[in-house]
Amino acid sequence: xxxxxxxxxxxxxxxxxxxxxxxxxxxxxxxxxxxxxxxxxxxxxxxxxxxxxxxxxxxxxxxxxxxxxxxxxxxxxxxxxxxxxxxxxxxxxxxxxxxxxxxxxxxxxxxxxxxxxxxxxxxxxxxxxxxxxxxxxxxxxxxxxxxxxxxxxxxxxxxxxxxxxxxxxxxxxxxxxxxxxxxxxxxxxxxxxxxxxxxxxxxxxxxxxxxxxxxxxxxxxxxxxxxxxxxxxxxxxxxxxxxxxxxxxxxxxxxxxxxxxxxxxxxxxxxxxxxxxxxxxxxxxxxxxxxxxxxxxxxxxxxxxxxxxxxxxxxxxxxxxxxxxxxxxxxxxxxxxxxxxxxxxxxxxxxxxxxxxxxxxxxxxxxxxxxxxxxxxxxxxxxxxxxxxxxx
Length: 392
Ligand code: FAD
What we know:
Blueprint (H helix, E strand, L loop, with lengths): L17 H28 L5 H7 L18 H14 L1 H21 L2 H12 L5 E4 L9 H4 L3 E4 L4 E11 L6 E8 L5 E7 L5 E5 L11 E11 L11 H36 L1 E2 L2 E2 L4 H29 L5 H25 L11 H13 L4 H13 L7
Parallel strand pairs: 1-4, 2-4
Antiparallel strand pairs: 2-3, 3-7, 4-5, 6-7, 8-9
Helix pairs in contact: 1-3, 3-4, 3-7, 4-5, 4-7, 7-8, 7-9, 7-10, 8-9, 9-10, 9-11
The structure holds flavin-adenine dinucleotide (FAD).
């Protein structure tokens, strides 16, 4: 059953059905057996382990909550549990997965026509085609709602896209990249399915990242990139449609933060029980126990919050502010957990070999992507006060 060292203090896993638990354990075993042994080396070299995509196919966990198109159609709760399990071993792999299954497939699922869904979702579900999601730009990050500089214009035959996208995960190798652009005529945001061999599309790998080194983030340049009307997401008419995708995926990012904190906590707990100083395991000292208790308290509060978040999602009641609150809270608590994990490990806390250093670095990416702390706080602030503090 579950490994003995487990960061599920309130037995939330027991709330899952046997079938759901079986899937959780299958994902956990896969991550331990197939991913953990190769992850630090790939992180160090900033290489993506393409061989695991083949192995991932057998798990059938892509597009978990979607109905039809070969997707499992399981509750959102299971999508969260899976995100936690993947991130518990490695946040880069969970980001690869979140971008493909959440942001890219989610855009097509929520904003695509029936034909577009039929064309892309089954192949993406089987991981035969990989997706990316291009919203952020070199000059526009938090302010994407009103500020996109990438433009599209219909020339009577095709849409012509011009601009740049920055930070786009998976984009160096993805088959289809969702590109969001502002229509020069209507000023509304539209989404496009851009294929990797489309003339006018160029993706260059961003080098020298200090977090998520396995994720292949790209700077994309679109130069008179022509896209047929058939490849415009037919149900995306404004930024509100983009925001619907982000609301769904932000919930997944909160679960990723839980996984990152859980992985660091479990490594640290194991370490403190084995490591001896002054003739006793350091876990026996009060100051170390205080760190461990702070960690498990944070982790437990994050998990219980995310359970309810997923329930809201499954009940069809998830609002932007629910997802934003979870993203803000979990990413702050995660930072506290990983820093305490690093602290109780002394010097070994900065060695890749002990895993915690990787969690500390990767936590910084979770902290910033899918809306920074400030932006998600402003979304919650707007909901509870009725005043929007965004300045446009
Ligand atoms: P900025 O928007 O420049 O913000 C800088 C600072 O100013 C932040 O602290 C911010 O909170 C603050 N700030 C901004 N506006 C306000 C305000 N009104 N009030 C108070 N404070 C404010 N994007 C994609 O489209 N696709 C991807 O696949 C993708 N993957 C990513 C992977 C990684 C590793 C990273 C780091 C980013 C990724 N992103 C991706 C982009 C990510 O979503 C942005 O980094 C994020 O939205 C923040 O934008 P920014 O970095 O431009 O920061």
